[in-house]
Amino acid sequence: MEIPSKYEPNRVEERWYEYWMKNKFFHSKPDDREPYTIVIPPPNVTGVLHMGHMLNNTIQDVLIRKARLEGKNACWVPGMDHASIATEAKVVDKLKQEGISKSDLTREEFLKHAWDWTDEYGGVILEQLKKLGCSCDWERTKFTMDDDMSASVIKVFVDLYKKGLIYRGFRMVNWDPEAKTTLSDEEVNYEERQGLLYYLAYKIEGSDEKVTIATTRPETILGDTAICINPNDERYAHLRGKKAIVPICGRVIPIIEDEYVDIEFGTGCLKVTPAHDENDKNLGEKHHLEVIDIFHEDASLNSYGLHYEGKDRFVVRKEIAKELEEKGFLVKTEQHTNKVGTSERTKAVIEPRLSDQWFLKMEDLAKPAIDAVLNTGDVKLFPKKFENTYRHWMENIRDWNISRQLWWGQQIPAYYYGDGQDDFVVAETKAEALELAKAKNPTIQESDLRQDPDVLDTWFSSWLWPISVFGGILEPDNPEVNYYYPTNDLVTGPDILFFWVARMIVAGYEFRGERPYENVYLTGLVRDKQRRKMSKSLGNSPDALQLISEYGADGVRVGLLLSSAAGNDLMFDEALCQQGKNFANKIWNAFRLVKGWKIADIAQPEAAKIGLEWYEAKFNKTLSEIEDHYRKYRISDALMALYKLVWDDFCSWLLEIVKPAYQQPIDKKTLARVIALFEKNLKLLHPFMPFLTEEVWQHMAVRDTTEALCVATWPELGAIDNKLIEDFEFATEVISGIRTIRKEKSIPMKETLELSLLNGEQSSANWDVVIKKLTNVSNISYVDQALDGALSFRVKSNEYFIPVAGTIDVAAEIKKINEELAYTKGFLKSVQKKLSNERFVNNAPEKVVAIEKKKASDAEAKIETLEKSLASLS
Fold it and tell me: pTM here?
């Protein structure tokens, strides 16, 4: 097979991915091997690949590919989430552009449009993940609206209802007026916004007196049903039992007393609007107040809004403030900062709204999930710091509002047969519902049943994900769920630690009696160089597919992972991808170098022999470090250790040590071991750089009989000879010293040098041959006195001399050494002055003092060497 002169990702990637797919290397079936399972955090069906997806899925692919190489039955289940709010909004918008209103369609007609949209646009992101190299078991792809997945959701709802954990209640909920649905507390983001505090005067009925209240939302006065004062506030004691008149609408409302009112805030008087504030609702129930809802579902005003009917709430806020001022009700305004709740999905400002909704009791369900993370350690979070966030959420958990006023999703399996509050039954099918209803009223017919129009929260589907993808809800004892569940690792972002991660743990213990996974790796957010979160609106998020096209999938994967420690945000810079691309080219060039060597049946050189022994030891030491990083989910550190091993130790050192002289052949023994070590490198690299490593591996002349690298065998950890590694590091410092002298004195490599070691122990002859080969030193001698006319350098306690007579300008060299000597003496003096300062020595941290002492000793050693060099030249 002809080897191209350069690595071409665009030519390689599609070919190898098709090869992997054709041979079903990613497909998993239960067998007698140890399973290793990951379920993908299902991206929205509306989604396209962005930087966060790339980071998250690259990490998952690294873990799954490593497990596959380790001989485990690796199963990575892909899929998509139907994303009720986001998808319905896109379908509604598409219909609007076609002149069709959702309200003009039946539910069935709308769902047909939703499925058409999903079939056309859904799944794009999964195809894009293939471009990234993700080795998912695509035959297992699931969608949260698949028939079996929906049936699982309905079964769970009925089960929880029968257990008394699901109930229907009239509650104050978070209303998204753009999506026209309720949201759970966790889907609301709070942000500080600058606004105004409006001071309004309410007339007291039957007098000329007025009472002033302060509000941030003047439009809601049209829903006021009381004014509340604190019974301990003497300023308003004379108002007890009286009534006030609401400005503009003229409604007469009672003045009530309650200690809930903060005497110090605003004027000490509180307007009470039970339909539009949670605390006001509680006051309303306590004091039996009328409830007046002034908004339509889109937050425009209804008929209670009088002449503002049909106008948006924020438009009304400005207009009613103007009217209140014109009519003398607006006393003053003040700048005021308060927290405003916004929809996590649509970004619309949330409107508190009273509504009949379905809720899941969470307090008891949460207990096993709290215990698993915080007490027993059955589920481990990486990094551990997120345990505090988890604790706060879970120990302050509220009942989960699981109903949504949408059509796209699993329709709630509650069937109404009468007008009474309790005239409904809950069942998996309409036929079962009819039987249950007949037990209550034998005259009921199927046509009398009306299914609840709401759908379930999307998270109520995805909290079952690790179980339902293996059929574990519908068939709790099936072979697949028994084999693959619980899964091993979950990789996701900390922003859905409660939305999804915690709820899956809750579901795991409730429906399977065990954890859904053992480890949760929480990635950071991908930010730009200015630390801004990447987003379409800021225009700072690069096109993921364009990056892959420009740098290759492997280059992008390496670029992302080099700077993405768990839980810490990644400052993305395209230079990282260029670094990844350069690394791929380095490996390719190393491969071409090795493949270009001619082979001969000759003896193995001593330098090659010891170089190979050293690299084997260094490889094993690095492998041990990498395995430790994997265990601690320090994926970035694992890659960095591997990067240094391959770039520095293999390419820059080993290949130079074993490389035959120009136009000379290499011996068979050396080449065989170099290729074997190269392949071991490729196996460690494969999880990070699957395409490049497969391409190189397939070109190798000598390898094991496995048909593809992606299903080869992970290297076994061999003996670690630390003495060998330390000796080599010493030798490299000697080599660097010689190279520095060549560079500084412009002595070309073709010119042979001699090296002498003053009063040093004779090193192994093996290392001498390595030093000689890499520096073109003809002889290494051991002397007991400094050599005249020689340049010197120091490596630890050893001093080396290189005779350079006739090759340099002695006068210029003496001048240069004198200048360096003067500078070093001045530096030493400044450090000694600092160390003679008792205040510094006694108060500075011990580590800082130690650093200064090290500076002093290094300077003294350097001065000694420079003075000897000067003496030898004089």
Answer: 0.84
